[in-house]
Design a protein that fits this description.
Blueprint: E1 5-7, E2 10-12, E3 18-19, H1 23-47, E4 52-57, H2 68-91, H3 103-119, E5 121-137, E6 144-158, E7 161-178, E8 183-191
Parallel strand pairs: 4-5
Antiparallel strand pairs: 1-2, 2-3, 5-6, 6-7, 7-8
């Protein structure tokens, strides 16, 4: 192996290529980029909101067993979906949606935003806790049914003032299907009981 040598015209590496950057400056640049990646990753993780807690129990799913990677992806996408719901309903703006809703779930969300706009209100969700139970996972791996027992606080605001507050436990039947790079919510239906 040829040693790295250098002079004021630059550094010559093992392949005989000349560079003006010293190995120390290159390492410093790599460290800066690495630190930036870590910070961006932490920011993305916190974008889902520190108050969206999700637990997933896959022990009763069937007929197909849920793979650990699929379980992790569903958990992350469901958490992000509820962070999206909170964000769009607090601003009455669907543009931040990350493509996690399709079909009737997307239609419900669009109608909720339109209704709030027409009424001049917004809704804040906070202290979200979701306990998911996977009850069906299709043999082909193309559909999962979840039961969500969700507990959260809501505030309805008009003109920036709180007009209604509520803390409640809600039950949802959720159908998710795999998309190109994530699991998407097709159905999100509130029910009285499972």
């Amino acid at each position: 192996m040829k040693p790295i040598t250098g002079d004021r015209r630059g550094v010559v590496d093992q392949r005989g290529c000349r560079s003006r950057k010293s190995p120390v400056r290159s390492l410093a640049g790599i460290l800066r980029v690495s630190a930036l990646i870590v910070l961006l990753s932490l920011a993305a993780a916190s974008a889902a909101g520190p108050d969206v807690a999700v637990q997933l129990d896959v022990s009763k799913a069937g007929p197909r067993k849920i793979e650990p990677q699929t379980e992790g992806r569903i958990l992350a996408d469901y958490r992000l979906a509820w962070a999206d719901i909170a964000q769009v309903l607090s601003a009455n703006d669907p543009s931040p949606l990350g493509g996690l809703f399709v079909g009737s779930a997307k239609q419900w969300l669009d109608e909720s935003i339109a209704s709030q706009r027409q009424s001049g209100v917004t809704t804040r969700y906070s202290n979200q806790s979701h306990k998911l139970q996977a009850v069906f996972y299709a043999p082909e791996g193309d559909l999962i049914e979840l039961h969500d027992v969700a507990e959260y606080d809501t505030q309805m605001l008009a003109g920036g003032k709180v007009i209604h507050e509520d803390h409640g436990v809600h039950r949802y039947v959720v159908l998710m299907t795999p998309g190109a790079d994530r699991w998407v919510i097709r159905e999100l239906m509130e029910v009285a009981q499972f």
